[in-house]
Amino acid sequence: MTTYIVDTGVFVRCGGPDNEKYQRLRRAVRQADVSLLVPRRVYEELGGDPDDEAYPSSNSRWQEGVDEGWIQIADELDYTNSRVSRVMDAARRFIANDTDRPEDTIEKTDTALIGLAAQLFDTGKTSSVVLLTTDKPAGRAAESLLPSHGFTNDVEYRYVSVEFLERITAAEFDD
């Protein structure tokens, strides 16, 4: 089973439910009968509140996708899991080195993407991950660090450019 983990930038590039790029992504995901998994930090960044049961995403324009089931909010990351926290720490260092920025300026959502993949592998909830991202350093970190931390599962990142969203089809999600 392949899990598709998505970062904030993908949704930002889509421009929202009224935009054709969003509709293309929606169609492709639904036709492929898969879903996009977003870390809780990403969902919060998109304006949602996964802990508010009454109004989980009153500020998120992506709620339609959540309601339809093609966007799913991941469980909270288990920071007490040493394998997950080690990968996240390494990801922060990797991205900082790759971008020549101080570690404390690296967005927590970037490391959450990689931490979520590690957690899914560690708990046996997936056999492969495709990281859909607009952040090349985070993608490179995932492909490099997950295998080096003992997660020998299949890891791939796909850079989601505007052009990618303009041509996306269900074939992008075929295993």
Model description:
There is one protein chain. The protein has 175 residues and is of the alpha/beta class. Helices cover 48% and strands 13% of the residues. The chain has eight helices and five strands. It has helices at residues 8-14, 20-32, 40-45, 63-68, 82-99, 108-122, 136-148, 162-167; strands at 2-6, 36-38, 71-73, 128-133, 154-159. It has a five-stranded parallel β-sheet. Helix 7 (136-148) links the parallel strand 4 and strand 5. The radius of gyration is 15 Å and the shape is globular. It starts with a strand and ends in an 8-residue tail after the last helix. The mean pLDDT is 89.
Offer a quick outline of the entry.
This protein has 175 residues and is α/β, with parallel strands linked by helices.
Secondary-structure blueprint of this entry?
Blueprint: E1 2-6, H1 8-14, H2 20-32, E2 36-38, H3 40-45, H4 63-68, E3 71-73, H5 82-99, H6 108-122, E4 128-133, H7 136-148, E5 154-159, H8 162-167
Parallel strand pairs: 1-2, 1-4, 2-3, 4-5
Q: What is the first-to-last residue Cα distance?
A: 8 Å
State the low-pLDDT regions, or none.
Answer: none
DSSP E strands, number: 5
Reported for the largest beta sheet, the result is: 5 strands, parallel
**Shape, per Cα inertia axes:** globular
Number of helices: 8
In what range is the share of β-strand residues?
Answer: 5-15%
Helix content: 40-55%
Strand order within the widest beta sheet: 3-2-1-4-5
Q: H/E series, N to C?
A: EHHEHHEHHEHEH
- Overall structural class, as computed from helix and strand content, comes to alpha/beta
Using only C-alpha atoms, the radius of gyration works out to 15 Å
Overall mean pLDDT stands at 89
